[in-house]
Every structure is written in C-alpha cells, then in structure tokens.
Design brief:
By secondary structure, the chain is mainly alpha-helical. Among the domains are: 3-59; 69-167 and 570-586, no CATH class. It has 21 helices and twelve strands. The protein has a three-stranded antiparallel beta sheet, with no helix packed on it. The longest helix has 31 residues, at 3-33. It is found in: Mitochondrion outer membrane. One of its GO terms (biological process) is intracellular protein transport. It holds the Pfam family SET. InterPro entries: MAS20, SET_dom, SET_dom_sf, Tom20_dom_sf.
Length: 587
C-alpha cells in the first residue's frame, strides 16, 4: 500500500471517528433533554430485549425438541450398563470428574445440554445423598440441563418400577409374581406361580426371614434363639448380660453368628447404647446426658413391649431398625465388600437378581398388602423416641400413618413358626378373640413359637385346599415351601393360613365355619377356594342356617399402598417420585 492510500484511510478513519463522537454528544444531549426521544429509546430497548428473549427461547425450544424420549432412553440405557466405580476413592474421583464434565459441556450451548445432563446424572448415581445433591443442582445448574437431569431421574425410577417383578423373586426360588384374580369380582392381585413342574413332596424354595420375634414366654425362659428361633440345648446358649449397661431387652442366642446378626441388624439400635452408625463412619461420642435420654427411651419402650406381648410391635421396630442399618451400611459397603457378600448369603431375598438394579427393604415392604389398623399414638411415640434418641432424624421413619401401615403389613403377612406339629404349652391369649394376633400357619397361631416376615412368601395366598405347605424342617425360622401335589409350570402356589383339617369332633359345616371365622378375624376376607365352594353346595338348608354367618361374603379388606396403585401408570408414578425427591429437600 502506497503513502497516498495510507493517508486517505487515515483521514477517513479520523473523519468517521469525529463523526461518531459528534453523534454521541448529540445523542446524549437528546437523551437528557428530549422527553419524546427518551420514550422512543425505552420502547426500542424493550423491543430489542423481547427479540433477544424470544430468540433465546426459540434456540432452547429447538434444542429441546431434538431431545426426544428415545434419546433420553438411549442415554439412560448406556449409563445403566456402565460398570461404574467400586471403591470409595474411585467413586469420589468419578463424581468430581462427572461434575467437571457436566459444567464444561453445559456452557457450550443447547446442543450439549443432554451430554451435560448425562454427566450430572452419573454423578448423582454415586453420590451418597442424592436428595441433597438434587437440591444443589437446582440452585447451580442452568434450568434446561437441570430439567434433563430430572427427566433422566424420572425414567430411571420408571425403569425400576417396571423391572421390579422381572428381577424379584430371584430366579433360584423357582417362582414368579403374577397378577390374577383370586376372589371373583374383587379384581386382580399379585400372587405366586411356579416356574417349572414339581412332584408332590418336593421343596419348591427355601427362604430366611427378614425379621423375627420370639413368643414372649419363650424369650423369658431362654429356651430358643432370639434371632433364628432355633431351640437351644441346655448349657449351649449365649446371652446378653442382664445389667443396665447393656440394655433393657435381653435375648438368648444359639450361636455367636446369630448374636452378631441380631446386634448389627436391629438390637444395637433399639436396646443398647452402642453407636447407631457403623464403626467405619467417624462420629463424635455422645454426651452423658444424651446417653441417659437414650437409655430412658429404650427402657420405656422395652417395658411397653413386654407388657403388651404383641409380636407385631416388635416386628415393626426390628424392621425399621434393619432399614436404618441397611441405609447406613451403604456408606461403607464399598470399603467392606465382604459384608455385602455375607448379606447376600443370608437367603432372605432383600435384594434382587440383577447385576445393576438394586432394591432395598423399603421396595419390598411397599408392595406388600396390609390391613387398616387404628394407629396407637402411645406406642408410636415410644418407638419414635427410641429412634430419635439414637440419632436425631431417624424419627422420620415412624410417623403415625407409616407406623399404622407397617403394623397392618405385619398383621397380614407374618408367618407363625412351628416345629413339627407345633407346641401345646403356649399361654392362652387374654385379649378379645377379634383382637388376638393371627399368623399364617396351618397348625394355628396358638401352636407357634414365634413370628416371622418373609419377602417372597408374603405373596402366597390362602386356600383351604392348598397346593403347598410351609415347613421349618431346618429347626430355625428358615421356611421351606413344599408341594402338596404335583404342580405344573404356571400353577398358583397356595398355603393354608389357618388349621383347615377337620377335627374328629367336628362336622363338615363346623370345620368350615371355624376356619372361615378365623380367616375373617385375622385377614378380613371370605375364602372362595374350591373346597369352600364345594362344601357350600353340599350343605343342607339346616346347615346353611347354622353356618349363615360364615357364609356371608366379606369383601377382601386388605389394601395396597397408594404409591403402589400408581405403579399401573409408571410414568405418573415416576414423576410423583421425582417430585417427592425435590419436595423432600426443599420442604
């Protein structure tokens, strides 16, 4: 470029700059002194801001429209198939790397929002307190990415809901849960069917209980294990020391293994002053005042349990304590893989057969049927005090409504553990017949030595002509379900909830009336099994007159939780659960 061209450009630039400066002075003068000009400027500013906002919304809408449900499904499927970190150190590094990836991708524009959300979702899956992290996400992540994270969470919940009965019961039990009508006209319910053929007398599956409770008289005598319910030979027992420092509720055990299992699962939390947290989690030692308050709360609860003598109360307390123990153990399971292996070997089916999908006790209990019971505010408060004095916040497990529902589930699903044909020396109940606790046993509750809850066996339904029977031939609370007759693949598994044998001093109508009364009192339904229908047709007019009360068709009063009803609409159930997670943090 020659000197003359350079001069021309320089002069032009100076001229333009001078013109711009002059216009800026003129513009500022009019802005400060011309009212109409100011109004025009404000109007133009609003127009520009509106155009920018619309453009941004259009850009977001365009980017969101490209992210359809199939794209979210594909991302979630990929994430769920990833091996993921195993140790706590690996999880910490993985968490930080995914957070960093999400932050970097989210600032690269709408087309990177889904990969960013996927990274944040991966971090959420390994974070020990997902509710807390969701609250942090809501405050720190840009809205479109946060919405995608929640959509992935909702799809994840939906998958868990739909996949539950694909993974539970475990395949090794040889049974599946299906939905069929049991009582004509009363809708479908979940029941057990066999997955293969069985001959009469064959064991279909075995199952250990989730929780047990020994009859009070046997606990006092120390003749049976307080955990597995095994009879104990004289001089072969292990006992918790009977002094105030070890708790107010003393148990006898058949072995050190049972003593440790009881301690780790529920006894330490409910009836000792031991830390409610695993030893791997550091915590400050409680003050003497806190320990005194905890001791007093436990003593009051123990006295109430002994006075009432109701096993459902103890079953609920132990179940809740085991839930707490399971949740706290999650925090250290990565550093103690042996504990996870031991839990899996228990055979109580508290998880599911799936390499990735995991279920917890709450998932199993939530799906069980229950009877409505009147909440007892006194016992709810006593148990709540035990939990809160051990670790503030645990009382959230035990609202009156939750407690009443849990009691109703124990009342409907608990089995009576009987060895051989049962015992003859159980103390006679003093409560009214309609208030006496009933458990599922073909020998009658009065012959049991204790009660137990099982995750798989709770789906067994009653029949007065059952296709299978429970057995406790191992000498513990481990239940074996044995075929009463030859069974074909797909046949329904039924057992007798009550003693259905016709006693020597009973007529057909008397036997029928007795067992139907017991079913109505204990489980609030009228049996419509093949035997009951056949016997009804055989009854004479006089017999029908005598047994008319037993022939009244009582509607099945057992219920399922509202949340489980929503499982028939997985999209709505998943949305409700995702919203509950956010609400629980914000509220």
């Amino acid at each position: 470029m020659d000197n003359r061209s350079t001069s021309y450009i320089t002069v032009a630039a100076v001229t333009i700059a001078a013109g711009l400066a002059a216009y800026a002075v003129y513009f500022d003068y009019r802005r400060r002194n011309d009212v109409e000009f100011r109004k025009k400027l404000k109007k133009e500013k609003k127009r520009v801001e509106k155009a920018v906002a619309q453009n941004k919304q259009s850009e977001l809408a365009e980017s969101s429209s490209e992210i359809n449900e199939q794209a979210l499904h594909d991302v979630l499927k990929g994430i769920r198939s990833e091996a993921g970190p195993q140790t706590s150190e690996e999880k910490e590094g993985y968490f930080m790397s995914q957070i960093n990836i999400g932050e970097q991708l989210s600032i690269q524009g709408p087309r990177m929002y889904l990969p960013a959300a996927a990274a944040f979702f991966r971090a959420l899956r390994v974070y020990p307190s997902p509710v807390e992290l969701i609250g942090i996400y809501e405050k720190t992540i840009i809205e479109p990415v946060f919405k995608l994270v929640m959509q992935l969470t909702q799809l994840d919940v939906k998958f868990r809901i739909e996949a539950y009965y694909d993974n539970f019961p475990p395949k090794r039990t040889n049974v599946s849960v299906v939905s069929r009508e049991v009582t004509p006209g009363q809708g479908n319910r979940q029941i057990l069917v066999v997955n293969k053929n069985f001959n009469a007398g064959e064991v279909i599956y075995k199952e250990f209980p989730v929780v047990t409770a020994l009859d009070p008289d046997l606990q006092e005598k120390g003749t049976h294990c307080g955990h597995c319910l095994r009879p104990i030979q004289p001089g072969m027992s292990l006992q918790t020391p009977k002094d105030s420092s070890t708790g107010p509720f003393h148990l006898t055990y058949c072995s050190k293994a049972c003593m440790l299992a009881s301690k780790n699962q529920y006894h330490s939390l409910l009836f000792t002053l031991d830390s409610p947290l695993p030893s791997e989690i550091p915590s400050m030692p409680p003050s003497p005042e806190v320990q005194q308050h905890r001791s007093e709360a436990q003593a009051k609860f123990a006295d109430f349990v002994k006075k009432e003598g109701r096993l459902s109360l103890l079953l609920v307390a132990r179940f809740i304590a085991r839930q707490v123990a399971g949740e706290t153990q999650k925090l250290v399971s990565a550093t103690s893989p042996g504990m996870a292996a031991a839990a899996a070997a228990n055979g109580d089916f508290t998880d599911a057969d799936h390499p990735i999908e995991k279920y917890v006790l709450a998932d199993h209990l939530e799906r069980l049927r229950y009877l409505e019971v009147v909440p007892n505010a006194a016992e709810t408060k006593l148990l709540s005090d035990v939990l809160s004095s051990a670790l503030p916040g645990l009382e959230e497990f035990i609202t009156e409504e939750k407690y009443a529902t849990s009691c109703g589930k124990m009342a409907y699903n608990a089995f009576g553990v009987c060895f051989g044909g049962g015992r003859d020396d159980r103390p006679e109940p003093t409560a009214r017949p309609e208030d006496v606790e009933k458990t599922r046993t073909p020998y009658g509750t009065q012959r049991q030595i204790g009660s137990a809850l099982y995750t798989v066996s709770s789906y067994l339904t009653h029949s007065c002509k059952p296709s299978a029977r429970p057995s406790f031939s191992s000498g513990t609370a481990e239940i074996s379900i044995i075929a009463n007759r030859d069974l074909k693949k797909g046949d329904v598994l039924t057992i007798a909830f009550v003693d259905v044998t016709q006693h020597p001093d009973e007529t057909v109508v008397e036997c029928r009336r007795r067992r139907r009364f017991e079913l109505a009192r204990g489980w609030r339904f009228s049996c419509a099994c093949e035997r009951c229908v056949e016997e009804a047709q055989m009854l004479s007019a006089e017999d029908k007159e005598k047994g008319n009360a037993a022939d009244e068709q009582l509607k099945d009063e057992s219920k399922i939780e509202a949340s489980v009803k929503n499982f028939s609409n997985p999209e709505q159930a998943a949305q409700d659960r995702a919203e509950d997670v956010i609400d629980s943090f914000i509220g």
